Model the fold of this input.
Amino acid sequence: MTRIMHAENLSHGAGARRTNVVEGVAVSASLLCLVHCLALPLLLLLLPGVLGLFAQSDAFHYAALALVVPAGLAAFWLGYRRHRARRPALLGIAGVICLVIALLPGAGEGGELWFTVTGSLLLVIGHTLNWRLRTHAA
Done:
């Protein structure tokens, strides 16, 4: 009986560690979006050339979104399975929607900045809430 309980504790610990890694990647990707958006003018001054052009291009935004969406979906799903709270996932979905809107042609320069910052902040808040709820869930 104690062997079975010990095995369950080990598997639960491995799952929690895996979820921590996924959540860490997801929140890091969201923070990367926020830092990119806020620090882009400074980066363009410090890193001229190809790197600056890539950071300003749509390719960077699509690459960042390709990282944020799957990592976020995985983190919010794993968190929901543990704590059953919808709020973190809803914040994350709203954040992803804002990031997608920022990439639409009609968003404009000011709209793109506003939607990207708002989306990144919503994702960071959602991931932080998800992380807290998950660590306090039984």
Remarks:
- The mean pLDDT is 79.
- The chain has one domain: 2-136.
